[in-house]
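Q: what sequence does this backbone want?
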């Protein structure tokens, strides 16, 4: 009854208002035109504002832009950390001695959830990275250990609404090779059973280094079961050694390290695996500074020897750009080495040498990915950028994102 009355009243009201409108129609037409003009202007202004504040997101990038985010980083996760990425990977000591994975603290869990929720709003894939070398070997060695871990991973992803997993075992040895590759296959099968598009990746070692680290990976078998491989094409030179050089030189090494380059490593992988579009190179975000640096080695500015003090190399690795700046690296003063395509600063007066990536060296790496039909880059790690996101803001991923890579090997293979 009440409903009927209400409807009747509504109809009456509507009739009255229609009468009123028809009476004022002479005034209504210019008013409507004015309103439409105002609306168009307002929408235009809004679109302008959105574009201005939100440069095009990269989730539709045709190449991968994978950002690692470390739980240990002090940086609060922000939109700027994520807006250029296609995947974000939360890195944490997930692996327990018992061979299961779990958050090691409530703090880590909260950080992950915050990251995940933000990343999902950007349409990114959210993955977890399972690192921590010491337990892997014994877990992989038995069928029971592998099955317990694959079960644990699958239920973790489901429970925590993650989209995939990266395996970052640094590094398996030749005796682990077969069990690791069986594990990757078993994990892929279990992920596929879940009937969700979970992604699986493996981070694997640089080539060309004595001891040949890729020997612990059955690469040809693994590549079949992963969506992509993140190649650890970095740390060719670091603050632990007396020989100074860029962390991730694209080209050009000096004896006995002539093969310590991104290009040598990627040549090795591309020729062996053929599926170049599954391979990603790293962009290291950290910065290194050596002290007591001696004169340059012949024909190069970036390769130098460090003078040891009491047998120890005097050097620091900064996992925070802000800290590096506070300690005295003036990133704006970077010089460029064309042969290695890397940025550096040599301070003649204080005898320090710093090595780091910047706009120019990152663009060289993006061009390299394009040129060699690689699948993308992985950034290690986005939380290391400074408070104004100097590194991430500086790089134009848009051109790089315009074309997909195909599996064409653009290297000379033996
Ligand atoms: C991995 O993720 C992509 C989307 O980013 C999806 O198209 C693909 O199917 C996933 N892989 C698997 C095996 O589900
Ligand atoms: C560098 O790589 C080439 C080709 O694989 C190899 O012949 C050469 O021995 C390597 N050099 C060193 C110093 O390992």
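A:
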């Amino acid at each position: 009854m009440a409903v009927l009355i209400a409807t009747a009243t509504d109809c009456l009201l509507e009739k009255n208002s229609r009468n009123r409108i028809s009476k004022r129609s002479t005034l209504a037409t210019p008013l409507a035109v004015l309103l439409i003009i105002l609306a168009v202007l307002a929408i235009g202004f809004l679109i302008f504002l959105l574009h201005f504040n939100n440069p095009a997101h990269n989730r539709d990038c045709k190449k991968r832009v994978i950002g690692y985010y470390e739980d240990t980083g002090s940086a609060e996760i922000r939109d700027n950390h994520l807006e250029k990425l296609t995947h974000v990977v939360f890195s944490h000591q997930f692996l327990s001695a018992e061979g299961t994975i779990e958050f090691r603290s409530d703090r880590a869990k909260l950080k992950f959830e915050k990251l995940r929720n933000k990343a999902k709003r950007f349409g990114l894939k959210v993955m977890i990275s399972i690192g921590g070398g010491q337990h892997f070997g014994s877990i992989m060695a038995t069928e029971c250990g592998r099955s317990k871990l694959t079960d644990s991973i699958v239920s973790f992803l489901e429970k925590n609404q993650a989209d995939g997993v990266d395996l970052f075992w640094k590094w398996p040895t030749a005796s682990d090779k077969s069990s690791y590759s069986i594990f990757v296959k078993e994990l892929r099968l279990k992920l596929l059973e879940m009937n969700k598009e979970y992604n699986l990746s493996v981070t694997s070692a640089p080539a060309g280094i004595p001891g040949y680290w890729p020997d612990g990976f059955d690469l040809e078998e693994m590549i079949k079961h992963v969506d992509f491989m993140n190649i650890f094409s970095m740390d060719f030179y670091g603050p632990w050694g007396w020989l100074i050089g860029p962390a991730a030189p694209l080209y050009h090494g000096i004896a006995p390290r002539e093969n310590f380059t991104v290009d040598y490593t990627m040549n090795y992988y591309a020729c062996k695996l053929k599926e170049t579009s599954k391979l990603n190179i790293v962009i290291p975000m950290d910065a290194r500074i050596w002290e007591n640096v001696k004169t340059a080695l012949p024909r190069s500015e970036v390769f130098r020897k460090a003078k040891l003090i009491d047998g120890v190399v005097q050097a620091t690795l900064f996992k925070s750009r802000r800290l590096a700046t506070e300690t005295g690296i003036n990133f704006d003063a970077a010089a460029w080495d064309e042969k290695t395509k890397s940025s550096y600063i040599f301070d003649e007066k204080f005898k320090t040498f710093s090595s780091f990536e910047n706009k120019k060296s990152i663009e060289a790496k993006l061009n390299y990915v394009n040129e060699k039909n690689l699948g993308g880059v992985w950034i290690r790690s986005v939380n290391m950028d400074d408070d104004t996101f100097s590194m991430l803001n500086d790089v134009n991923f848009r051109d790089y994102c315009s074309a997909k890579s195909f599996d064409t090997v653009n290297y000379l293979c033996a």
